[in-house]
Design brief:
By secondary structure, this protein is an alpha+beta fold. The chain has 4 helices and 5 strands. Helix 1 runs antiparallel to helix 3. The two termini are about 15 Å apart.
């Protein structure tokens, strides 16, 4: 879990018809979080998950620039081709990359940009991009 000063990025496969471990096997990584539809949302809570999911997260160094985030995560996951193969094999209902970026308590509230190559990679993956500004 991140705190208000942590930079992080995650890629989530949500709405899976297969066991979340299938995505882990395809990427060769353990998911940071996963869950099966029908299982409790959390231990001790009876509300069941509506969709199975697998999420792969990375905490980032404070010096990481916004333009570096997407390439770093995709490299960590084995590259665009590997992520595309996993996506095509499991066809999640939702597929999103989320960037967590602390700005409210930051001394430097600088802007940033996403390079065309990162935007192209997301488009080829048919992946949505979300931001959580803390």
């Amino acid at each position: 879990m991140t705190n208000a000063n942590d930079k992080a990025v995650s890629l989530t496969f949500r709405g899976l018809e297969v066991d979340p471990s299938t995505v882990e096997q395809m990427l060769g990584l353990h998911a940071s979080e996963s869950g099966k539809a029908g299982a409790p949302v959390r231990v001790g809570i009876k509300t069941p998950l509506k969709r199975s999911f697998a999420s792969f997260s990375m905490n980032l160094d404070q010096e990481t620039r916004l333009d570096q985030v997407i390439p770093l995560l995709l490299d960590h996951l084995g590259g665009v081709a590997k992520v595309t193969a996993a996506y095509q094999a499991v066809m999640p209902e939702f597929f999103e990359l989320n960037i967590i970026w602390p700005v409210k308590s930051s001394d430097e509230q600088e802007g940033g940009f996403l390079p065309p190559s990162a935007i192209s990679d997301l488009a080829s993956l048919r992946c949505t991009l979300t931001f959580a500004f803390l």
